[in-house]
Amino acid sequence: MSAPIPVRSPLTSALSGTTAVLIGGSSGIGLAAGVLLRSVGARVVLVGRDPGRLKAAVSQVRDAGSAEDPDDAVLGVSGDGGDERTLAEAFDGAGHVDHVLVTAGGLSGTGPVTGLSADDVRATFDALLGRTFAIARTAATRLPAGGSITFSSGILVLRPAPGMTVPLSAAGAVETLTKALAVELAPARLRVNTVRYGRIDTPLLRSLPSLNSDDAVAEAGSTAPLGRFGTAEEAAASALFLMANNYVTGQVVTVDGGESLS
Ligand SMILES: NC(=O)c1ccc[n+]([C@@H]2O[C@H](COP(=O)([O-])OP(=O)(O)OC[C@H]3O[C@@H](n4cnc5c(N)ncnc54)[C@H](OP(=O)(O)O)[C@@H]3O)[C@@H](O)[C@H]2O)c1
């Protein structure tokens, strides 16, 4: 019988001195998580594909710490989060990793199913689920007891929109595997959770042609239950809660300003 999961402070300030790998940490919610984590004294490894975006993000997260921070307080690893070599580089670079947050994602495989080929469907599933399983495999063998993995999904899983069948099926699978993996990894005292986001004001949201200006975001957000979209920091804070609280596993936590109820 393994020892029970350690008891420790569930406050996010207790993440000080821990190390988190943020896959998708060069923008939006992942980047905001990096800033919050560094501001409470955690070490952070950011993973993203675009080297320029990653470099700027590393610098932004470093600025959230103090001038005396060692160079390895914030690292950047450029590559695809589904590539096991990239993941090994991130874990090896960190030396010791306590938490993994996965916010890598984007819009792919959209459109009516009748217009998508079998290859289109396979590519979307391979990208999202292939990445998720690669991360789960790596994290499961590298994290210590008390470690956590936090994935991302979205409220369209609950309230689908036309043309989103393929990406939402993959996102729904992430929610299901969260529960299955939580059960599988509990004996190793690892926790697995997902944050299900509503509309969060990030570069991904603003990449939609109808939301590419402050005015458009404010106007569209005004119809949300709380009168605006969420901020990346509000979204990221929920991931920090899940990292810090050693008694939460197998959960999908919705952060959507009440939108899924409206
Ligand atoms: N914002 C929302 O309203 C919203 C709503 C529901 C769900 N979500 C989900 O929440 C997550 C975060 O969204 P966000 O709004 O923060 O998006 P974002 O601003 O576009 O950030 C996504 C990050 O992931 C990285 N990334 C994408 N694909 C990657 C890959 N294969 N390997 C490594 N890094 C990768 C991106 O950098 P590179 O492109 O340079 O790799 C970027 O740093 C996504 O999974 C998204 O689907 C967001």
Strand content: 15-25%
Number of helices: 8
- Mean pLDDT level: 97
- The total tally of domains equals 1
Largest sheet: 7 strands, parallel
GO molecular function: oxidoreductase activity
Keywords: Oxidoreductase
Pfam families: adh_short_C2
Family: Belongs to the short-chain dehydrogenases/reductases (SDR) family.
Give a description of the structure:
The chain has 262 residues and is an alpha/beta fold. The protein has a single domain, classed as Rossmann fold. 41% of the residues lie in helices and 16% in strands. It has eight helices and nine strands. The protein has a seven-stranded parallel sheet with strand order 3-2-1-4-5-6-9, with helices on both faces. Strands 7-8 form a two-stranded parallel ribbon. It starts with 18 loop residues before the first strand and ends in a 7-residue tail after the last strand. The model has no long low-confidence stretch (mean pLDDT 97). The structure holds NADP nicotinamide-adenine-dinucleotide phosphate (NAP). NADP nicotinamide-adenine-dinucleotide phosphate (NAP) binds at residues 23-24, 26-30, 47-50, 53, 80-82, 103-106, 131, 152, 154, 197, 199-200, 202-205.
What tags apply to this protein structure?
binds NADP nicotinamide-adenine-dinucleotide phosphate; SDR_DHRS6-like; SDR_fam; single chain; 16% strand; oxidoreductase; 7-stranded parallel β-sheet; two-stranded parallel sheet; oxidoreductase activity; globular; 262 residues; alpha/beta
